[in-house]
């Protein structure tokens, strides 16, 4: 095989790997950079002002819609709910779904205390959202028309400066390189380590499903009134942490309100 064919093959392989990784990865829906400025900053549900339609399959039949506000004729509904106040509520309804409020526990909360609709995969230009026993597929084209976009877990958790934590009562492996079988340097936990995403040689922060991080090991975590310096610092490591599993679901977490 000559060099040109080798590099063409390599480019195709990398493109396929990126597409496969993205299609098998979840995340959440967010307004684009120009639209997000129009939303209040705290405890607001970020969904389009026009109903967000979902289908029973990619390019399938209508299944329902999600829209801001409270279901009609709901007991205790505040009178004359303003457009801004309606942003603190979201309703789901559909062919087999009675109109009902979406509980805040359904949404994904980011550092700015805003709430987003989560999705678990992408397929044929649609993302899949789940609620209770219902499954719906939302068109990326429709999202774009409403000035919304998908944010993938590796994009969110792999952002430079992101502070990562482990799921409760669990640990994550800090590895020497971005491979699942690489040497484990140390196991990170939420009580003794502060782990922050950093960039490497060319300014990138991620490689596949891994992010480059700096992990500081403390005697007493600063969230529990420990110091960031001096004898409270046991060691500082640099390595790689896996952000999502083979199904594209996050292996790490963040604290929306900080500590």
Task: Write structural notes for this entry.
The chain is mainly β and 259 residues long. It has helices spanning 3-23, 83-86, 140-145, 153-157; strands at residues 27-31, 44-46, 52-55, 62-68, 90-94, 97-101, 108-109, 114-116, 118-119, 121-123, 126-131, 134-139, 148-152, 163-164, 172-175, 184-188, 193-197, 206-207, 210-218, 233-242. The strands form 6 sheets. Strands 14, 17, 18, 19 and 20 form a 5-stranded antiparallel beta sheet that branches. A hairpin with a 2-residue loop joins strand 18 (206-207) and strand 19 (210-218). The protein is globular. Residues 3-21 have low confidence and may be disordered.
**Which regions are unreliable across 5 or more consecutive residues at pLDDT < 50?**
3-21
Number of strands: 20
Radius of gyration from the CA trace?
21 Å
- Cα separation of the termini: 55 Å
What form results from the Cα inertia axes?
globular
Largest sheet: 5 strands, antiparallel
Helical fraction: 10-25%
The pLDDT mean sits at: 86
Structural classification: mainly beta
The total of helices stands at 4
In what range is the share of β-strand residues? 35-45%
Q: What sequence of helices (H) and strands (E) makes up the elements?
A: HEEEEHEEEEEEEEHEHEEEEEEE
